[in-house]
Structure formats: C-alpha cells, structure tokens
Amino acid sequence: MAKRVAIVGTGQTFHTSHRPDVNGQELINEAVIRALNDADLQMKDIDAIVIGNMDHFEGINYVDCWSVDGSGGTMKPIIKLTTGGTTGCTVAIGGYHLVGSGMFDRVLIIGWEKNSESDTTGAITTAFDPIWDRLVFAGAISGLAAEAQAYMARYGATDRDAARVSVRDRKHALNNPHAHLRREVTLEQVLASPILADPIHLLDVCPRSDGACAVIMASEDVAEKICPQPDWILGTAARHSYSYLGDADYGRLTSMREGSQELWKKAGIREPRKELDVIELYQPYSFGGLIWIEDMGLVGPGEAPRYIWDGNTDMGGELPINPSGGVISCNPIGATGLIRCAEAALQVMGKAEYRQVPDVKLAFSSGFGGCWWTDMILHGRKKPH
Amino acid sequence: MVRPEQLIIASGDAVQPFAYSVGMHGSRFFTEIRDNCRFMAVRCPRCKKVYIPPRAVCGDCFVEMKEWVEVGPQGVIGTFTIIRFAFLDPETGRQKPVPYGYGFIKLDGADTLFQHYISVEEEKRLRIGARVAPVFSRERKGSIRDIEYFKVTD
C-alpha cells in the first residue's frame, strides 16, 4: 500500500577538512543523534536504516555492517547504497522508496564521508573504466573542466561568469553554521586564484570535507504527529546517461534535463523558475551553476550568466540557489547530496534560521556524480494529492 | 590538546594487483592499433551511431553491435583541458607529471569522443574544433598507451 512520505527531522555534524577527533562510526553517530533530537524521536522508534558513502574513499567497505553501534542499526533492517557523488541523494531516494512502499513508517537515512583519510582524486579516478578512462583522467576536476570548456565555446560564457556563481555561494555560506568554508571572496580573488585545469580556478571548486548528515523520513500515518510542518516529498528522479566519459554531450547535462522534466511533469510544474522558491543544487564547481540551471529549464540555453549576474539566484532574488553555501562551501562527498536534501527540508519546514528564504512552498534538491549522472528530489509544504 | 599523530593510524604499504577484461570488442580495437595503427569502431544497427571505444551493446537502443567501421586516425578536438594541479596517479602511486593536455577527440567518422593526451607543446593552438592526429609509439603492446598522444595539425 503506497504511502505519502515526509522528512520530519534532520541532523548534520560539524564539517571541516579533518576530523581526527572522531572515527567514522562516531562521526555518523553525531549526525544521527542530532536528527533524532530534531524529530524528538528515540532510536527504538526507527524501523529501518539506509546508509551510504563512497567506500573506496576511506578504504573501508560495508559501512552498513561495521557502523551499527554509531548508526543505531544494531538488529534493525539496514541497507547500504553507494552511487558516487550522488550517494547522499540516492540514500534519500532509497529511504523515500522504503517509506513510500508502506513497509516502514520511520526510516533513518545517513550519508557520510571522511575524505581526509585517503586520496580523493586518486580514488575518484579508480571509479572510471580502467582500460579506457583511467590513463588520462585526473579525478572530478578534469571532466568538469572539459564540460566547462565546451559550454564556454558553445555559448560565449566566460570564467568571470562562473566566478560570479562562486562569489554567491561563498557569501551565502556565511549564514550557515554547518558550512566548512565560511569566507567571502571577490570576483577578482576567484579569477586570480591558480588555474587547476583550464578554465577552472581554485576558488571555482569545492573543498574535501569530513562530515555526516542524517535525515528521518516518516509515512503520512505518523509524519504530522512527529512534526507539525513536515517537508513532503513530491517526487524523485534519477538518470544515468553513459558508461564511458567520451559519450557525454559536453556542455550540457542530459541527465539533469531528463530528470527535472520528469519531476516538473509529476508535480504539474509548468514554469519551474516562477514556481520553485529555493534550490539546493549539488554544484561542485561554479560552471555547473550556469550549465545545469539551463538544463533544469529555469532559463534558456546560454542565458544563465545574465540571470545570475542580475542577482536572481542571490538571497532575496527571484529564486535563491544554495542558501547553505552549497557544495562549494562544504563537501563530505557521501553526505553532500543528503545535505542538499536536508537543507531543502529545513527551508520548507521554516527551520533554516539565518539562511531561511521567506515563505518556501516548493524546494528542489539534487545530487550529481561521475559520468554526468543526476538524482533529484522535489520538496513541498503541502501534503501531495 | 591531543596531537594528530596520536589520533591517526596509517594503513600499510600493501599493493593490490588487479587484472581487467577488455572484452572481445576492446580486444579487436587494441589488436588493430598494435598491428596496423588503425582505429576500429562499431556501428549500431538501429540508430547508426558509431561508437568508440567499441563495445558490444548500444545503450540507447539496447541492441547488440557487430558492424565494424574504421574511423580516424585524424579528428578534431571536441573539448579539452590542461591539467595543472598535482595529484597521485592511482596506477603508479606516484605524482602524475603536470601540466598535460587532456582531450576528447571526435575521430573522423565516429559519433562519440575518444579521450587521450593532447600535446601542450604549443598550448595556444589547443582549441575546440582544432584538427589533431595521433602519434603512435614505435613498439606497440596492445594497450591504450600504444597511442602516445594527439597533436594539433592546423
């Protein structure tokens, strides 16, 4: 029996570049305790757990098994999901399916990563085809740079346009006590920072962070008893488009276009730019903030730079993007997508404090990863039909 | 204050060797590169898309592909970057020499892009749409390294 599903509680750790003060299990526990406190629930109330990270980043497999003391999963139904950069969003979609199926009323969802414990770029490189992709690939930045280069050539955008996105997110992060990087930068500082891979500057990209996030989802039978204003999930979508890096349409994000169209259709949204109130975009680098909002249909192809420059996506603008400071300000990879989901939920619930966008009725969060795949969630204040 | 060295335990120096199958299609590709310096691709019988690297199934149409097509060896740069940051090569555990050019090449006659090194000797000549040609190694062993890099020719 299908049920409607809502987020009723969220919790995040203190995110920073290195957390040697805790092991993985203890880090997970910080987020879980905060989510339980937020929902005013106890571990005995939780029916099932979905957990995920990029296991080869830490070099420890089977997090669902070894972390049960910290996750609260001792003798409970628990599954692990790992989908690369999208992991945090995928665990949320997995939890949504478990609750929506009617099999569980309260599901705890956990995403986490201790990127400080290994070499992230080396590990990301091993996520791609060993025969064809690995020789030249240089982790996430190399593929993203190729995407940015193609977008710039196609539409005449510049690295200055991208820098404006980075300035926005880094400014927004000042309002978020959970952000790892909280320092305002200027356009000139972004453009003067070293080029990592043309056309990407150091200040265009996200950091590596240690951190965890937990979210509690509940079925319509119990959600409003737990939380007077839950964040209702209106729909989810996931798309993978390619196996080999050379198959991508560089300069466009096909998976974002296809997935978001599915979501708009599901929710009866005709003009996403006007109907959405806030977006938490999984945007690991500034150029993604241009390219991908075009693929979402917020603006036409090549129109993002103008839209961003006009302040429409700033706090107080037509459609604020990343009030949290986004991935550019905080990136514990397996948690990053779930943080987007949790931040969108906080916005809908009216609990986003200094980073609250007024009167949020409809919010969007996404995950992004590897061969240009995208997961996404649509959040709303009103219980769906 | 607890010092980090009291909080972190490093893993050992173990090396884990892996061996990967390249598949029948991939095997033909590398054999042709080794013996004839020819790029072989496959065409989808349904959508007619020409794929490189060659693989057995067209993901879009979900049908088997058996029709071989010679593509390249020249092509144009579809997109590219120049890697300038230091990182460890996971295949060797050593730092990869940077800067290096990394390109997605549209080989003549192919519909997907073939990724490889692009020479950055004359950095300014790298642009999307520039014509490139492969430089093969003198002693070829049937691996992706049989192609040393592509160079801009126009």
Strand content of chain B: 25-35%
Structural class of chain B: mainly beta
Percent strand of chain A: 15-25%
How would a textbook summarize the main sheet of chain B?
5 strands, antiparallel
Shape of chain B from CA axes? globular
| Low-pLDDT stretches of chain B | none
Helix count from the secondary structure assignment of chain B: 1
Alpha plus pi helix count of chain A: 16
Largest sheet data of chain A:
9 strands, mixed
Biggest β-sheet: strands ordered side by side in the sheet of chain A: 3-2-4-7-1-8-11-10-9
Uncertain ranges of chain A: none
Shape by Cα distribution of chain A: globular
What is the distance, rounded to the nearest whole angstrom, between the alpha carbons of the first and last residues of chain A? 15 Å
Mean pLDDT of chain A: 96
SS elements, strand count of chain A: 11
Would you kindly provide a written description of the structure presented here, covering whatever features stand out?
Chain A has 16 helices and eleven strands. Chain A has helices at 24-39, 55-58, 63-66, 68-71, 87-100, 120-125, 139-155, 159-172, 187-192, 223-226, 254-267, 272-275, 288-295, 304-309, 326-329, 333-349, and strands at residues 5-12, 48-52, 78-80, 106-114, 195-197, 200-201, 210-219, 231-239, 278-280, 362-369, 373-380. In chain A, the strands form two sheets. In chain A, strands 3-2-4-7-1-8-11-10-9 form a nine-stranded mixed sheet. A two-stranded antiparallel ribbon of chain A has the order 5-6. The longest helix of chain A has 17 residues, at 139-155. The mean pLDDT of chain A is 96. Chain B is 9% helix and 32% strand. A five-stranded antiparallel sheet of chain B has the order 8-7-6-9-10, with no helix packed on it. A three-stranded antiparallel sheet of chain B has the order 2-1-5. The mean pLDDT of chain B is 93. At the A-B interface, helix 6, helix 7 and strand 5 of A face strand 6, strand 7 and strand 8 of B.
